[in-house]
Each structure stands twice: as C-alpha cells, then as structure tokens.
Structures
1.
Amino acid sequence: MQECLNCGGVVTDQYARVFAPPDVQGVRVCPSCEDKLREGAEVREAHSSRHTGQ
C-alpha cells in the first residue's frame, strides 16, 4: 500500500499505478482529499468540499 502525498491517506497499489505520474513517487491526491482534486494530468484546489458529511 502507498500513501497520498497530500493527505497521508492509504491508497492501493492498483490506484497508485493508475493515478501516480511516472516521474512522481506516490499519489499526489486521492479520493479522500477534500481540498484538492485531479483535473487531467494536473492537481488543483477544490472549489468546495466534495464530502457532504452524510
């Protein structure tokens, strides 16, 4: 298992293979990150929280 470089959350090796850029060691942002999200090959600040607290 690997860690998200943004929040420290654990991500699966399969998730890392798909979403970690080849030149970066680790995932830059994961589904648990409330403040950032992936947009194409880039990571950007989220406009609002993606979690509703439900």
2.
Amino acid sequence: MTTTASGLWASGSDRQVTCIACGETLDREDAREYDKHGDRWDREGKTFEYLCKPCYRECCHQNRDGLEETLVAADAGRADRGTFLARYCELVADDVEPNRTES
C-alpha cells in the first residue's frame, strides 16, 4: 500500500503511471515520483509525474533551486533550440555574476 497525494491509501499495483522520460507505462509502485518544483515532501494539493527506475537513476540529483523558473523564462518547449539556449545562457550568466561594488 502507498499513500496518495490526498492522503488516501491505494494499492500501487492498482494504479498505472507513465514515465515522463521514456514513456513506459508501469505500476506506480515500480516508479519514482518527480516534482518539477523540487519539493516532493510537501504533498498538500500536489499531483506528481513519474519516472521509471532506470530513467530516475540517469537523472542528475543536484539542487534545482530556480531551474524551473529559469526554463520558463527562457521559453523552454516554445522557442526554437537556438533562441532557447541563448536566453537560458543569458539568464544563467546573470545568476553567476559576482556582486561588485563600485569604488
């Protein structure tokens, strides 16, 4: 048995999910939850996407603070590749600029 986002008990084998990376359909109990906001522990009012275990193992598990907002701001999935990459690099470069004080 697993707990759903709403707190109800559900049998994992009763629920099929689809891996967002490869498209495989599998039992929920054989998948890993993915929360695009990076906060899978705050469950109230959330729905999750899922990854199969092989795709989950291939994911980078580094801190993603601000990543989703940066992707949205760079028009990920809407702009062509070149435009997206230029916008993304510009946004990321702004984040790593050291704070400088003028003398």
